[in-house]
User: Which sequence fits this backbone?
């Protein structure tokens, strides 16, 4: 099986305050830490596990600046073979569709049986790439994938998609295909020290829009379905009554409230 | 305004709520609302949809017994080409997100996914969606086009009472060719464990803030003194720290306890969807901007490792334990 894995580098905002910057269209990123998009990490693991079972190669692709090399190298260290990074100012402001176009342009000339992506990006949450990429490449796709089993003929896969309520929908899909991987499908490994050392030496091929045969009007904001006009703080309903004080006090206040409500 | 197509979603004999919500939301946008429905023997759904739509276009065919992106994409794009709607609404569900991007690419129609609010600028949608796990609202401007596609997050629009009696039009399956590259096989139910959290009167929900599974005893202890069961966010289940049947949310369980105490949970909408019906919601989180505080009744902004043991202590005192 020859596989391609698309990975994204994203800021970790779950535990940090998010500030809108002066442009109103971006956030201040200087104090945020970055890492691999959560479900992409599972996608990398899935590709490597299939390679370990059936042989083949894993090519890692990421769209973004030089800093993305860190995420790419981690995927190489875990067992990826080759890497391509797509970098161009023309890609700035891309929505999921424009990203999918750049990825498709890079992937179409590769030999692949499966393209893996994450089901969703932690930052923009578009979820567009797996299905759009499949359509652009002219191959079938499935997303929210929580199980992948290559069938004996090597031409089809049995794929489990996660539906609402945790129900799994199993389907058979022809290869080559694009699979959008959902978190929890496997247990992502840590890279070994040896792997990290080897990955540091590997070459990452950098490609511009022109290298991919893309006109700037096809990608970035110009090639997107929609552009961000502005960010605003979320509209929240009534905020929680925040209990003030040190842990001793807040715990006592909460305990008293629970008692008053008959919950204790 | 041209017609608005709303794709009706159903699974295993049940029409999904988001379908009615979208029909109701579409009713305020100024075009003819057309419910589009594919299924096998779905006359009853067609009738139900007619209560909320000006028109129902539906296809009965074994091809649509279960969702299949290949069959759905072919059928929906054929009906869109024939009827020329200006807007298509699809649920931002496991089904919709598998279908809409490929359909949009095929038709050359701009798509915005997972919208949480919608305004129209004459015929052009100006959707709002969220970035960064609900920490910001993003106002989107779509490219000019004749057809727009949106996937709509559940509960974005409110489902009202049926007030229309739309014309019901049964159409022939526009897909003549065989479905070849994707085949539905079966549904597999999630495993059932020893505790059914949907029946619990009190739940302590634990999230990634707990850091490691070896820290679980501090929330277990709290749950024990409260007489509560332990529930979890997806992050905790994915990490393998608690079994899948403890997961609350869109891909987990929907719970309605008297008390839901969210510990180290950010409050992503996929989680909130499963627990917002709880009577009293309390959140303990060190990030004052965590979206969970937007739906909680009471909040403590602090380190859970400091607060939870104290809370356990205080409750023990109150109970005379
Ligand atoms: C299709 C799909 C379906 C999904 N279904 C579900 C679902 O059913 N259920 C679900 O839960 N999620 C679901 N998710 C995932 C969801 O989007 C979030 O990723 C998940 O809910 C995050 O879990 P969390 O809040 O535990 O972790 P995080 O978002 O990482 O948040 C951790 C929180 O802990 C806080 N914290 C950290 N340390 C401390 C400390 N010492 N003291 C206090 N607070 C601390 C942080 O401030 C942060 O707010 C789904 C996602 C997708 C794409």
Assistant:
């Amino acid at each position: 099986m020859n596989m391609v894995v698309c990975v994204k580098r994203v800021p970790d905002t779950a535990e940090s305050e998010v500030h809108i910057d002066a442009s109103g269209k971006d956030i201040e990123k200087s104090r945020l830490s970055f890492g691999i998009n959560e479900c992409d990490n599972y996608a990398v693991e899935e590709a490597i596990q299939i390679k370990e079972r059936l042989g083949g190669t894993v090519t890692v692709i990421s769209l973004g600046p030089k800093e993305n090399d860190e995420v790419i190298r981690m995927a190489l260290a875990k067992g990826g073979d080759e890497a391509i990074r797509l970098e161009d100012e023309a890609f700035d402001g891309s929505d999921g569709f424009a990203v999918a176009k750049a990825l498709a342009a890079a992937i179409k000339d590769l030999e692949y049986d499966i393209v893996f992506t994450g089901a969703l990006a932690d930052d923009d949450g578009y979820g567009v790439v797996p299905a759009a990429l499949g359509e652009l490449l002219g191959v079938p796709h499935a997303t929210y994938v929580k199980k992948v089993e290559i069938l004996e003929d090597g031409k089809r896969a049995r794929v489990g998609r996660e539906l609402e309520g945790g129900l799994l929908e199993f389907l058979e899909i022809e290869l080559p295909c694009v699979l959008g991987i959902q978190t929890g499908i496997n247990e992502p490994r840590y890279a070994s020290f040896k792997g990290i050392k080897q990955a540091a030496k590997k070459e990452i091929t950098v490609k511009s829009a022109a290298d991919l045969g893309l006109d700037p009007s096809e990608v970035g904001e110009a090639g997107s379905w929609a552009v961000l006009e502005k960010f605003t703080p979320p509209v929240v309903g009534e905020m929680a009554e925040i209990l003030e004080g040190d842990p001793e006090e807040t715990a006592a206040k909460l305990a008293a409230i629970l008692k008053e409500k008959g919950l204790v | 305004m041209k017609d608005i197509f709303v794709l009706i979603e159903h699974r295993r004999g049940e029409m999904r709520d988001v379908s009615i919500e979208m029909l109701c939301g579409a009713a305020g946008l100024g075009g003819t609302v057309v419910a589009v429905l594919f299924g096998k023997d779905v006359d009853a759904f067609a009738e139900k949809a007619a209560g909320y739509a000006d028109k129902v276009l539906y296809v009965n065919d074994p091809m649509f017994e279960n969702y299949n992106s290949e069959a759905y994409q072919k059928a929906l794009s054929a009906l869109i080409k024939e009827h020329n709607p200006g807007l298509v609404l699809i649920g931002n569900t496991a089904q919709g997100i598998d279908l809409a991007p490929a359909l949009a690419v095929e038709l050359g129609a701009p798509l915005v996914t997972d919208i949480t609010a919608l305004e129209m600028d004459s015929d052009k949608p100006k959707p709002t969606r969220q970035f960064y796990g609900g920490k910001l609202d993003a106002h989107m401007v779509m490219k000019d086009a004749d057809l727009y596609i949106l996937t709509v997050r559940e509960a974005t629009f409110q489902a009202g009472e049926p007030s229309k009696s739309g014309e019901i039009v049964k159409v022939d399956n526009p897909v003549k060719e065989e479905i070849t590259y994707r085949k539905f096989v079966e549904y597999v139910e999630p495993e059932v464990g020893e505790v059914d959290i949907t029946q619990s009167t009190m739940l302590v929900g634990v999230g990634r803030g707990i850091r490691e599974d070896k820290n679980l005893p501090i929330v277990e202890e709290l749950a024990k003194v409260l007489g509560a069961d332990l529930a979890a966010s997806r992050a905790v289940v994915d990490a393998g720290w608690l079994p899948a049947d403890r997961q609350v949310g869109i891909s987990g369980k929907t719970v309605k306890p008297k008390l839901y105490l969210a510990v180290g949970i950010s409050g992503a909408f996929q989680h909130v969807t499963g627990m917002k019906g709880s009577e009293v919601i309390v959140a303990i989180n060190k990030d004052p901007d965590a979206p969970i505080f937007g739906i909680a009744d009471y909040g403590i902004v602090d380190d859970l490792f400091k607060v939870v043991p104290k809370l356990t202590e205080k409750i023990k005192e109150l109970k005379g334990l």
In short: Helices of chain A lie at 38-54, 69-78, 96-107, 129-137, 193-201, 247-260. The mean pLDDT of chain A is 97.
